[in-house]
Amino acid sequence: MGAGVATIPEIAYAQSYVFNAVSIEGNRRVEPGTILSYAGIARGDRVSAAQLNDAYQRILGSGLFETVEIIPQGSRLVIRVVEYPTINRIAFEGNKRIKDEDLAQIVQSQSRRVFSPRVAEADAQAVSKAYEVQGRLAARVSPKVIRRSDNRVDLVFEVFEGGVAEVERIGFVGNGQYSDRRLRRVLDTKQAGLLRAVIRKDTFIEDRVEFDKQLLRDFYSSRGYVDFRITGINAELSQERDGYFVTFNVEEGQQFKVGEVSVTSDLSEVDADLFASKIRLKRGKVYSPALVENEIARLEKLAVNEGLNFVRVEPRVSRNDRDLTLDIEFQLVRGERIFIERIDIEGNTTTLDRVIRRQFEVVEGDPFNPRAIRESAERIRALGFFNKADVDAREGSSPQQVVIDVDVEEKPTGSISLGGSYSTANGIGITFGFSEKNFLGRGQAFSFKISNAAESQQYGLRFAEPGLFGRDLALGFQLGYSETDNLNADYDTVTGIFQPFLEFPVAEQARLQLRYSLDYGHIRNATDVGGIVIAEAAEGERYDSSVGYTYIFDSLARGLDPNTRYRFEFGQDFAGLGGDTTFIRTNAKAIAQTRIMNEEVTLRATLEGGALSYTQGDSRVTDRFLVGPDIMRGFTYGGIGPREVGGGVDDALGGNLYAVARFEAEFPLGLPEEYGISGGLFYDVGSVWGLSDSTKNKATESVVSTGFDARHVIGFSIFWDSAFGPLRLNFSEPLVKRKYDEVQNFNLTISSQF
Q1: Taking the model in full, what pTM does it have?
Q2: To 10 degrees, what angle do helices 49-61 and 32-39 make?
Q3: What is the pLDDT of residue 218?
Q4: Pairing relation of β-strands 401-410 and 339-346?
Q5: Cβ atoms of 669 and 678 closer than 8 Å
Q6: Nearest Cα residue to 333 out of 376, 360, 296
Q7: Which of 14, 159, 276, 439 could bond to 94 as cystine, CB 3.0-4.6 Å?
Q8: How far apart are CA 141 and CA 92, in angstroms?
Q9: What pLDDT was estimated at residue 14?
C-alpha cells in the first residue's frame, strides 16, 4: 500500500514564511479549494516550518492522496499530490466456503470509489473474522492491488481459508454429581469424531461456547443446584491451530429441595387461602426456578379470573443450609397500573399479523403483565416459523402505557420429501410428500402424501387451522385412501376415510379432540380357498359413520420435572350415526418415562390396548386390530392374533381386542456423544384376540389364537440421531410364540420421541 512522503527542505524550525501564491499540482478529482482547506494556509499569513509540517499531515490524513509534497519556493508554496486511484472492480480469489456475493456484503470498499489502503486492510480483517465465525482460525486474507490505466486499480482479496478448528476434546473439572459424558450431552458444542463431515457442531466458535455456559447453568439450576458456578473455561489451541481442547471448570454446590410453601398478601380484596389451595408445588420436591415460574403464572392467571387486575406475585425464597431446603413464600402485591397501548409487529414478510397476535393472551388496553408477555414470546418462538423472534416492551405515549415490539425473522416452513422403498409384501415403491406448517402465512398446517408401490397405493391429505376465532382451538380434517394387493394374503383391500376434527385444551396439561369419521372398506379379489375372508368379501362395500373423542394428558405441557414424564390417551368412537354398522371402538395408551443413574439411563414403560364391540353387523378384517412391529416388536404386521390356517389358507384375521405392554431402557454405549448413537434393551408382552361367534362360523378351516394368548419378546435396539433423522434399529427374539406366528427379527424405523 502507498505511503505519504513530505519533502520539506532542511530548515530551522525558527524560520518563517510568507507566501503570496499557492500552486497545487497533480490533482485530478479533488478540487484545489478542498486541498487548501486541509492545508489551512492563507495567502499572506506568516507560517513556520512546524505549521507547514502540520499542513502536510492534515492533507495526507484526509485519505485522498497516496503521496503529498509541500515545497516552499520563495514567496510561492507548491503543494504536489498524487491522488489515490479509483477502484475499477473488487474480486475474491481462493474462497470456496463463503460465496463472492456474501463477502461483498462484508467489505466496505466499493467499485468506482476512491481506493483507501486503510479501508482495504479493515476489509481484509472483516473477511478473516467471517471465517473465524465458521471456526477457520487459520484463515488469512491479503488485499492486492493491480494497477490499470487512467489511475484505476483492481482490488483483489486473496483468501486462504485454511481448515476448521475443531473441538478435539471437551472436559470438565469439579463435577461430581454428573459425569463428563452426561454434561457433554447438555452442550451445543460437540467433540470432533469420525462423523465430522456430517456433524458440524464440532467446530470451535466462541459465541457457541458462551451459549454452552448458559446451558450448563440452566441444567444444574433446574436440578436444584442453586450455587452452581462456572469458575472458568480453558480453550487451548493446538500447535497446528486446527483443534481446541476445551475444559469447563465448575463448582456444583449442594442440591436443594423445596421446603415450606406459603401464600401471603396484605391486600384486603385478596383471599390468600384461595390462592394457597391452587399451589401444586410440594415440600421435598427438587427445587427448580421453572417450578416457581409455573406457580407464579398459575396464581397470576387466577388473579385475573377473580377480577383482581394489577395483582402481581413476588416469590420470597429463604435458604435453610442445615437441611438443604428453600422455603418459598408467594406474596401477592399491588403492581403498577400500566396498560398496553399497542402491539407492533415487524419483520413478518409471509406470516400474517393475526397469527402472531393470537399468541398473546392480552390485547391493546389490557393491564400489562411482564410475565404474560414473556410467555407470549415463548409461544411465538415455539411456532417454528421464525429464525428469530424478539419481544420487548417500551414506554408508550405516557408512563402508564407500554408498547410491545415484536421483531421476527421468517424462515422456510415447508418441506418436500421424495423416497423409495422395497418390501417383500409391497414390492418397490416411490413416495412423495409435501408439508407446510405455515400455509399461506396463516399458521395453518397442510400436508399430502402419495405412496405408489407395486402392490400398494396410498394417498393422504391433512389440513388444520390451529387458531380458530383467534383462540387455542384447532379445526381440521384428513382424507385417506389406500389400495393393497397383498402378496402374503389371499385377498386385497380398499379403504378410505374422511375425518373432520376439533381440538381444544380442557386443562393446563390436557386436550380434547372431537371428531366425525366416515370410513369406507372393501375386501376384493379373495381367492376361492379362503373361508372367513371370502365370506367377508361377499358382503361387498361397507360404510361406517361414527363420532368420537380422544382425551390426552401430558405432563410435559408444563415441564415440572426434567427427569420424569407421563402421558395418557383415551379415545372412543361410536358408530351408528348412519352407515352400515353400530359399534364402539375404544383405544387407550399410557406412557411413563424417567431417568436414573444421574440421568445416564432412561427407563420407559408403555401400556396400550383397544376393544371393538359391535351391536349391529360384525367386524371384518379391515376393521379389527392388526398389530405390527410399531406396537409389538418381533412380529410382522398381523403376525400374531386370530388366524385361519389349513387347506391352503393362511390369513391373519385381526382381533376385536388387543393389549401390549412395552418396557425398555436406553443407555449410552460409550461412544462419543457427537455420534448420536446409544443402545437399548426391551421386553414386550402382548396379545391380539377375540372373534365373534358369527365370524368363527364363517370359517372353512381351523381358526387359531382366538383367546388371550400372550407372546413375549426380548431384544436390543440401536438409536442413531443421524443426518437423515432419528433412526431406531431393533433386533428381537420371541421368547413365547406359536408356530403359525410370523416372526420379524429385525426392523428399522423412525425413532419417535415421546
Answers
A1: 0.72
A2: 130
A3: 92
A4: parallel
A5: yes
A6: 296
A7: 159
A8: 10
A9: 52
Alpha helical stretches, state H, 5-48: 32-39
CA-to-CA distance for 164 and 238, rounded, in angstroms? Answer: 12
Per DSSP, the chain holds a count of helices (H) and strands (E) of 12, 36
The C-alpha cell that represents 668 in the structure block:
449410552
What's residue 301's pLDDT?
87
Contact between 459 and 483 (Cβ < 8 Å): no
The pLDDT of residue 199: 47
Is the C-alpha dihedral spanning 362, 364, 366, 372 positive or negative?
Answer: positive
Q: Cα dihedral angle (359, 364, 366, 372), rounded to 10 degrees? A: 30
Distance CA 74, CA 519 (A): 108
Residue-level pLDDT at 674: 67
The DSSP secondary structure of 100-114, one letter per residue, reads HHHHHTT----TTSB
Residue type, 53: N
Set of cell numbers at residue 711: 407372546
In the block, cell 436414573 appears at 596
The phi and psi torsions of 267 (rounded to 5 degrees) equal -85, 130
C-alpha cell at 525: 379379489
Query: Could you give the CA distance from residue 698 to residue 202 in angstroms, rounded to a whole number?
Result: 64
- In 3D space, the residue among 408, 388, 386, 404 whose CA is nearest the CA of residue 396 turns out to be 404
The per-residue pLDDT of the chain, averaged, comes to 86
pLDDT of 255: 95
Dump pLDDT digits (tens) for 666-676.
Answer: 998 888 776 77
CA–CA separation, 624 vs 751, rounded Å? 26
Q: What residue ranges of the chain have pLDDT lower than 70?
A: 1-14, 135, 164, 192-202, 204, 238-242, 419-429, 453-454, 486-490, 527-530, 557-562, 674, 723-725, 750-754
Rounded distance, CA 203 to CA 447, Å? Answer: 36
